[in-house]
Design a protein that fits this description.
Layout (H helix, E strand, L loop, with lengths): L13 H9 L1 H17 L4 H24 L6 E2 L6 H28 L12 H28 L18 H21 L4 H20 L6 E2 L7 H19 L1 H11 L5 H44 L8 H9 L8 H47 L4 H5 L4 E8 L7 E7 L4 E9 L3 H19 L5 H13 L8 E9 L4 E7 L5 E3 L5 E3 L19 E4 L5 E5 L1 H4 L10 H11 L5 H16 L8 E8 L7
Parallel strand pairs: 1-2
Antiparallel strand pairs: 3-12, 4-5, 5-6, 6-7, 7-10, 8-9, 8-11, 11-12
């Protein structure tokens, strides 16, 4: 006030700023404060109400302009983080200032007592109010909006306002243009017609009310995030310019007097104030544009590229980010090096992904082949237990679970002649495909040769020689082979290094058949094998198994695996064979974790029921 006197009216710049920040409620607060102050100062009530209406209207105008001009995908609350937002704020401040000037002029023409509130009544003097509104809108806007964003204070801008009517906005644009045209024509031709003035004042009032009540909806994203480093750089630069403005105020005054020498001193002070703030904003715009071009836009493009990375829907991803970054690749500054590093990283990741896809495809192919091999192996092991023993004086059931997709453990059973059947179990050293191939070879040798050689000792000596031939990997097989005379119950067997079977005799519990085993097949040339015999009574059972069934590789040596197996088998020895094996598998799984076995699991059990025709 000491500088500009009545030409400085700073508080009018708060109305559009609060309108943009808090919507109509913010503008209403400022307008009510101004009304109360003017009434307390003894101003004319009608003039005070007209000024209240003007203040409230320009706040609504600023509010709707912010959220309807420069439409973007996401509408944010006010923030000075880009050149676009600075220009948007300047344009809104300019439009509001021009409309404000026209409203004041029409109000003066219709109600001359407005001079109590607006003492500058001449046409040239009224332009001071335009400069005031524009200048202090910039100053208060930069100050309040920046403070709210830095302190993370929410701008509670409503997404909806009173939607009583829905008029096309083009009608309002035409009305504003007509209003400005009327003011200019009246001033140029010095028209003084109170009737016309009152008509235009009434039309302006109606237009303002309709504009305030017109439909307005916006999908507003309330931004309360912290300022980024780049935004802080911009704000810091703005603060430095503000300080510089006050330091060189007197020097700017000399420049202002060149353009306004024919005005009074108070008007020159106002013009200088506006000139300085305008110059400050202009320099700030150039600075922001430079920061955006060299820092902000490259980083945002980089962030956008990172967000789009891996998006299968974006088929042109590589072309898009290459096009974005081609201008930055020519330079060698920090941002350019960062982008080059990103491109190098992206290329490395894509190469690794391509290699991974090839590896995955090969792995899937191998897994498919293993699955087929597993099915083939499962098909080789007989599962027709009920069909095989349906009319025979015995029952038989088996289980095989490989440690990998395929394994080397096996079992088999078949009829040798009308009185004898054979059953056996085996376990190849190792797991996987090699063990499976060796398993197939051994199974075929045992089955084929046992049908033509009734002497078990000679049979196993012959098989031992055959398994040792062309066995470069030195693989061995443990096997237990039994030959049962179904009429007499006589069981002849050979144990080629295999686990001792569990035998149930005379309705007693299972016990281990402690017979010294011979050498595994394929381990020694010219190995000798001893045949042994015992008799089975009706109800007797033989329980065969491999190492995987007792989990010797899953537990420490101090753990008594053999005793646990015997106790578990005896627990279910009165059940049907199928239920018996399933129950044993469930119990042992809790101890040995059969879901992830380290060795092939194989079980074969036979129950002799006796033959009535045999005496």
């Amino acid at each position: 006030m000491p500088y500009g006197g009545e030409y400085i009216v700073a508080d009018i710049g708060v109305a559009p700023v609060f309108g943009m920040m808090f919507g109509p409620v913010g503008g209403l607060g400022q307008a009510l404060a101004s009304l109360i102050w003017q009434l307390c100062e003894g101003a004319n009530p009608t003039a005070a109400l007209i000024d209240f209406s003007i203040m409230f209207f320009i706040s609504i105008l600023a509010y709707k302009l912010w959220y309807t001009t420069f439409k973007e995908e996401t509408i944010n609350t006010p923030k000075f983080n880009s050149t676009e937002n600075i220009f948007k704020f300047l344009i809104i401040a300019f439009i509001v200032s021009i409309v404000y000037w026209a409203l004041i002029y029409i109000s003066f023409e219709a109600y001359p007592k407005m001079f109590v509130i607006y003492p500058l009544s001449s046409f040239i003097a009224k332009t001071a109010y335009v400069l005031n509104l524009f200048n202090f809108t910039l100053i208060f806007g930069i100050f309040f909006i920046s403070i709210f964003n830095i302190r993370e204070l929410p701008m509670q801008t409503p997404e909806k306002w009173i939607n009583l009517i829905d008029i096309n906005k083009n009608y309002f644009i035409f009305s504003f243009i007509l209003l400005l045209g009327y003011v200019i024509v009246v001033q140029i031709f010095n028209i003084d017609n109170s009737i016309t003035d009152n008509i235009f004042f009434g039309l302006t009032l109606i237009m303002a009310i309709l504009f305030c009540l017109n439909k307005f909806e916006a999908n507003i994203e309330v931004r309360t995030v912290k300022y980024s480093i780049i935004e802080k750089i911009i704000l810091f630069f703005l603060i430095i310019l503000s300080i510089l403005f006050f330091v060189i105020y007197d020097e700017l005054m000399v420049i202002s007097m060149i353009f306004t020498y024919h005005f009074n001193e108070d008007y020159i002070q106002l013009f200088n104030f506006c000139f300085g703030s305008g110059l400050m904003i202009l320099i700030c715009i150039f600075h922001i544009h430079y920061v955006e071009k060299t820092i902000t836009n490259p980083i945002y493009d980089l962030i956008d590229s990172l967000n789009q990375y891996g998006n299968d829907e974006d088929e042109d991803y590589r072309e898009n980010y290459t096009e974005k970054f081609k201008n930055y690749l020519k330079n060698n500054d920090d941002i350019s090096r960062l982008i080059k590093s990103f491109i190098t990283l992206n290329n490395n990741i894509e190469n690794n992904l391509n290699d991974l896809q090839k590896t995955t495809a090969e792995k899937e192919k191998i897994e498919t082949e293993f699955s087929i091999a597993s099915n083939i192996q499962s098909g080789m092991l007989k599962t027709n237990f009920d069909e095989f023993s349906n009319t025979e004086p015995f029952e038989i059931y088996g289980l095989m679970k490989p440690a990998k997709e395929v394994g080397g453990a096996f079992y088999d059973y078949f009829n040798i002649d009308e009185e004898n059947m054979a059953f056996f179990i085996g376990d190849v050293s190792g797991t996987g495909v090699p063990a499976t191939l060796f398993m197939v070879k051994t199974m075929q040798l045992i089955e084929n040769h046992s049908k033509f050689n009734s002497d078990l000792e000679e049979l196993f000596e012959e098989i031992n020689e055959l398994t040792g031939m062309r066995n470069d990997d030195e693989m061995t097989v443990t096997s237990w082979f039994g030959k049962l005379n179904i009429k007499s119950g006589k069981l002849s067997f050979v144990n080629a290094g295999h686990n001792p079977p569990l035998i149930k005799h005379d309705n007693q519990d299972f016990e281990y058949l402690t017979v010294k085993p011979d050498y595994p097949l394929g381990i020694m040339e010219n190995g000798k094998y001893e045949k042994q015999e015992l008799y089975l009574s009706p109800g007797d059972m033989v329980f065969l198994y491999t190492d995987g069934a007792i989990g010797k590789r899953n537990k420490p040596e101090s753990f008594n695996c053999d005793n646990l197996l015997k106790e578990t088998v005896n627990k279910y020895n009165d059940e049907k064979l199928k239920n018996m094996i399933k129950s044993i598998e469930t119990d042992l799984n809790q101890v040995y974790n059969y879901n992830n076995p380290v060795d092939d699991i194989t079980i074969l059990v036979i129950k002799y029921n006796g033959c009535e025709s045999y005496e």
